[in-house]
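Usage

Read records sequentially. Each one opens with the input sequence:
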Amino acid sequence: MRRRLSSGLEIEEIQRHLDELLKLLAAPAQTAETSFSPAVDLRESDERYVVLANVPAVPAAELVVTLRQRELRIAGRKLPEGAPSAHRRCHHMERGFGAFSVEVLLPGPVRPEASTAVLAAGVLEISLPKLTERRDCLHTIAVTTEEP
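and closes with the structure output:
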Protein backbone atom coordinates (compact mmCIF):
# COMPACT_ATOMS: atom_id res chain seq x y z
CA MET A 1 0.00 0.00 0.00
CA ARG A 2 1.32 3.42 -0.96
CA ARG A 3 0.45 6.65 0.77
CA ARG A 4 1.17 10.10 -0.45
CA LEU A 5 2.33 12.60 2.11
CA SER A 6 1.44 16.24 1.69
CA SER A 7 2.71 19.47 3.13
CA GLY A 8 -0.84 20.67 3.71
CA LEU A 9 -0.94 23.02 0.72
CA GLU A 10 -3.16 20.62 -1.23
CA ILE A 11 -5.61 20.44 1.67
CA GLU A 12 -5.75 24.25 1.85
CA GLU A 13 -6.53 24.39 -1.89
CA ILE A 14 -9.30 21.80 -1.52
CA GLN A 15 -10.74 23.78 1.40
CA ARG A 16 -10.72 26.96 -0.73
CA HIS A 17 -12.59 25.17 -3.53
CA LEU A 18 -15.15 23.79 -1.07
CA ASP A 19 -15.71 27.28 0.38
CA GLU A 20 -16.36 28.66 -3.13
CA LEU A 21 -18.79 25.82 -3.87
CA LEU A 22 -20.69 26.40 -0.62
CA LYS A 23 -21.01 30.12 -1.43
CA LEU A 24 -22.48 29.26 -4.84
CA LEU A 25 -24.96 26.83 -3.31
CA ALA A 26 -26.03 29.34 -0.65
CA ALA A 27 -26.63 32.13 -3.18
CA PRO A 28 -30.27 32.88 -4.03
CA ALA A 29 -31.47 31.10 -7.12
CA GLN A 30 -32.03 33.13 -10.28
CA THR A 31 -35.32 31.38 -10.91
CA ALA A 32 -37.76 30.14 -8.29
CA GLU A 33 -39.36 27.46 -10.49
CA THR A 34 -38.79 23.87 -9.43
CA SER A 35 -39.99 20.73 -11.10
CA PHE A 36 -43.15 18.89 -10.16
CA SER A 37 -44.08 15.35 -11.15
CA PRO A 38 -47.10 13.67 -9.58
CA ALA A 39 -46.91 10.18 -8.10
CA VAL A 40 -49.19 7.80 -10.04
CA ASP A 41 -50.71 4.40 -9.21
CA LEU A 42 -52.36 2.01 -11.70
CA ARG A 43 -54.81 -0.50 -10.25
CA GLU A 44 -56.91 -3.18 -11.94
CA SER A 45 -60.13 -4.93 -11.04
CA ASP A 46 -62.22 -7.36 -13.10
CA GLU A 47 -64.27 -4.49 -14.56
CA ARG A 48 -61.89 -1.53 -14.84
CA TYR A 49 -58.49 0.10 -14.55
CA VAL A 50 -58.12 2.88 -12.00
CA VAL A 51 -55.35 5.47 -12.21
CA LEU A 52 -54.67 7.61 -9.13
CA ALA A 53 -52.44 10.68 -9.40
CA ASN A 54 -51.34 12.91 -6.51
CA VAL A 55 -51.84 16.47 -7.72
CA PRO A 56 -52.02 18.60 -4.55
CA ALA A 57 -52.90 22.27 -5.09
CA VAL A 58 -53.57 21.72 -8.81
CA PRO A 59 -56.97 23.11 -9.81
CA ALA A 60 -59.17 20.98 -12.09
CA ALA A 61 -59.02 23.75 -14.71
CA GLU A 62 -55.25 23.16 -15.01
CA LEU A 63 -55.60 19.40 -15.71
CA VAL A 64 -55.98 17.74 -19.13
CA VAL A 65 -56.55 13.97 -19.38
CA THR A 66 -56.33 12.35 -22.81
CA LEU A 67 -56.54 8.76 -24.02
CA ARG A 68 -55.18 7.44 -27.30
CA GLN A 69 -55.68 3.70 -27.67
CA ARG A 70 -54.03 2.31 -24.48
CA GLU A 71 -51.94 5.39 -23.64
CA LEU A 72 -53.37 7.63 -20.92
CA ARG A 73 -51.79 11.08 -20.56
CA ILE A 74 -52.23 13.39 -17.59
CA ALA A 75 -50.93 16.91 -18.14
CA GLY A 76 -51.28 20.09 -16.18
CA ARG A 77 -49.64 22.91 -14.34
CA LYS A 78 -49.14 23.41 -10.63
CA LEU A 79 -49.08 27.09 -9.83
CA PRO A 80 -46.54 28.46 -7.34
CA GLU A 81 -47.89 29.29 -3.91
CA GLY A 82 -46.73 32.55 -2.38
CA ALA A 83 -44.06 33.41 -4.93
CA PRO A 84 -41.16 35.44 -3.53
CA SER A 85 -41.53 39.21 -3.80
CA ALA A 86 -39.63 42.30 -2.70
CA HIS A 87 -41.10 41.91 0.81
CA ARG A 88 -40.79 38.10 1.05
CA ARG A 89 -37.93 35.73 0.42
CA CYS A 90 -37.94 31.97 0.28
CA HIS A 91 -35.04 30.45 2.19
CA HIS A 92 -35.79 26.81 1.39
CA MET A 93 -38.05 25.27 -1.26
CA GLU A 94 -38.73 21.57 -1.87
CA ARG A 95 -42.35 21.58 -3.01
CA GLY A 96 -42.18 21.83 -6.78
CA PHE A 97 -44.43 23.60 -9.23
CA GLY A 98 -44.67 24.13 -12.96
CA ALA A 99 -45.91 22.21 -15.99
CA PHE A 100 -45.98 18.40 -15.91
CA SER A 101 -46.98 15.48 -18.08
CA VAL A 102 -47.27 11.80 -17.16
CA GLU A 103 -48.00 8.93 -19.56
CA VAL A 104 -49.43 5.60 -18.38
CA LEU A 105 -49.63 2.59 -20.69
CA LEU A 106 -52.76 0.62 -19.81
CA PRO A 107 -52.52 -3.20 -19.85
CA GLY A 108 -55.56 -3.57 -22.12
CA PRO A 109 -58.16 -1.69 -24.16
CA VAL A 110 -60.78 0.50 -22.44
CA ARG A 111 -64.09 2.17 -23.26
CA PRO A 112 -63.23 5.90 -23.44
CA GLU A 113 -66.86 7.03 -23.63
CA ALA A 114 -67.57 5.46 -20.21
CA SER A 115 -64.39 6.71 -18.51
CA THR A 116 -64.46 9.31 -15.72
CA ALA A 117 -61.94 11.58 -14.01
CA VAL A 118 -62.67 13.03 -10.55
CA LEU A 119 -60.43 15.39 -8.56
CA ALA A 120 -60.92 15.27 -4.77
CA ALA A 121 -58.60 16.21 -1.90
CA GLY A 122 -55.58 16.56 -4.20
CA VAL A 123 -56.00 13.12 -5.81
CA LEU A 124 -57.12 12.68 -9.41
CA GLU A 125 -58.97 9.36 -9.84
CA ILE A 126 -59.46 8.17 -13.41
CA SER A 127 -61.76 5.19 -13.86
CA LEU A 128 -61.48 3.36 -17.20
CA PRO A 129 -63.94 0.49 -17.83
CA LYS A 130 -62.33 -2.43 -19.63
CA LEU A 131 -63.32 -3.27 -23.17
CA THR A 132 -63.96 -6.97 -23.64
CA GLU A 133 -61.36 -8.26 -26.04
CA ARG A 134 -62.88 -9.64 -29.18
CA ARG A 135 -59.70 -10.95 -30.83
CA ASP A 136 -59.77 -14.33 -29.10
CA CYS A 137 -63.50 -14.89 -29.53
CA LEU A 138 -64.73 -17.34 -32.16
CA HIS A 139 -67.43 -15.89 -34.39
CA THR A 140 -69.41 -17.98 -36.83
CA ILE A 141 -70.36 -16.24 -40.06
CA ALA A 142 -73.36 -17.63 -41.87
CA VAL A 143 -72.75 -18.75 -45.44
CA THR A 144 -75.46 -18.09 -47.98
CA THR A 145 -75.74 -19.12 -51.57
CA GLU A 146 -76.40 -16.88 -54.48
CA GLU A 147 -79.34 -17.95 -56.60
CA PRO A 148 -78.72 -17.69 -60.38
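Summary fields computed downstream for this record:
- The two ends are 101 Å apart (CA to CA).
- The longest helix spans residues 9-26.
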